[in-house]
Design brief:
single chain; 301 residues; 11 helices; alpha/beta; 5 strands
Length: 301
C-alpha cells in the first residue's frame, strides 16, 4: 500500500510543523493540506485524504463541531483527535461524533508514531481485504451455488476471535451468538442481506427450530433460554469494555469497539457506575444493535 494522505487542522503552527515532520520521517505518508481552524474546511478539501488530525480546542469552530460537520457532508476517512483535555466526558463526546482515536498533548513523538502506525496498519488490512474481495468477485459461482458461502467454520472462527477480544468467549451465550452470525452470513450469501434484525424472539425461535428440531413447546422454552443467555453475554461485553476504558481510555479494544457495539453515552454511564463500585447497571442493553454491529465487524475482518 502507498503512504497515507494526511490533513492537519491545528491552530498551533509549531504543533503542525512537528506533526508534519514526524509523518514525513516515519515514512507512513505525506501531509497534503493544513488548516489553522475548522471553519473553512470542507469535504472538497479532503478528497483522497485518508486521515485528518484535528485539534479539539480551536478558535472559531472546535474540533468536535468540525468533525460533526464533515461527517454530515459525507467525509468517511479517519479522524485522530489531538487534545490536551483529559475530561472523559468531552473525549467521550468526541468519540460519539466519529473520532477513531486520539493523541494527548503535549505531543510525544513515540505516542504519535505509535498511534499513526496502528491506524496505518488497520487501514492497510482493510484495503488488503477489500482487494481480495474484489478479485474473488470474478470467481463467484452461479447464484444457485452461492448458498454454501460463506464458509461456516471461518465465520465461527472469526466470531470467536471477536468474542475473545470482548472478554466473553467463555460465556454460555457465545454459541448462541455464533448461530445468529451464521444466520446473518447465510442471508447475505443468498442475496438477502439483513439491514435490521427481525424481532429477536422470532429469530431465536427460528434458530432453535432449525438447529435442534424441537417440539413447539420445547422450542418456545429454549428460545427464551437463548434470549437470556445472549442478553447476559451482551451485558458482560458491555461491562468489559467499560472496565477497559476506565483503566485506559486509549486501549485499542475500547477505542474501536465501545462506540460501535454500544451507545457510547451508556458506556460512559457504566464507567461511572464501576468507579462507584456498582456491580449492577441501570443502562439498557440494545441487543439488536450489538448483534448487527458485531456482524458488521465480522465483515471487516
Amino acid at each position: 500500500m502507498g503512504g497515507l494522505r494526511f490533513f492537519l487542522i491545528e491552530d498551533d503552527p509549531a504543533v503542525r510543523k512537528m506533526l508534519e515532520k514526524l509523518i514525513h520521517e516515519s515514512g507512513l505518508g505525506e501531509v497534503v493540506g493544513c488548516a489553522e481552524d475548522g471553519l473553512n474546511v470542507r469535504t472538497a478539501d479532503l478528497l483522497d485524504v485518508d486521515v485528518v488530525l484535528i485539534d479539539l480546542l480551536m478558535p472559531g469552530r472546535d474540533g468536535i463541531q468540525t468533525i460533526k460537520a464533515l461527517r454530515e457532508e459525507g467525509f468517511a476517512g479517519t479522524f485522530i483527535m489531538i487534545s490536551q483535555v483529559e475530561n472523559k466526558e468531552m473525549i467521550g463526546h468526541a468519540y460519539l461524533q466519529g473520532i477513531d482515536t486520539y493523541i494527548q498533548k503535549p505531543i510525544n513523538r513515540y505516542e504519535v508514531l505509535s498511534v499513526l502506525k496502528r491506524v496505518a496498519d488497520h487501514m492497510s488490512a482493510i484495503r488488503s481485504l477489500e482487494s481480495i474481495r474484489q478479485v474473488l468477485k470474478g470467481f463467484e459461482p452461479p447464484s444457485a451455488a452461492r448458498e454454501s458461502i460463506p464458509n461456516q467454520a471461518a465465520i465461527e472462527q472469526q466470531a470467536e476471535q471477536l468474542l475473545l477480544l470482548l472478554g466473553v468467549a467463555g460465556e454460555a451465550g457465545s454459541a448462541d451468538v455464533l448461530l445468529v452470525m451464521r444466520w446473518l452470513a447465510e442471508q447475505e450469501a443468498k442475496g438477502r442481506p439483513v439491514r435490521e434484525l427481525p424481532p429477536l424472539k422470532e429469530l431465536y425461535a427460528e434458530l432453535v427450530r432449525r438447529e435442534y428440531g424441537l417440539s413447539p413447546v420445547e422450542t418456545s422454552k429454549e428460545a427464551r433460554a437463548m434470549e437470556q443467555r445472549i442478553r447476559r453475554l451482551v451485558l458482560q461485553a458491555f461491562t468489559h469494555l467499560a472496565s477497559l476504558g476506565l483503566t485506559d481510555y486509549t486501549n485499542p479494544t475500547f477505542e474501536h469497539f465501545a462506540p460501535r457495539l454500544f451507545d457510547f453515552a451508556d458506556i460512559r454511564r457504566r464507567m461511572k457506575e464501576l468507579e462507584r463500585g456498582q456491580s449492577e447497571t441501570k443502562c439498557r442493553m440494545n441487543v439488536r444493535k450489538f448483534l448487527m454491529a458485531l456482524f458488521l465487524e465480522l465483515k471487516r475482518i
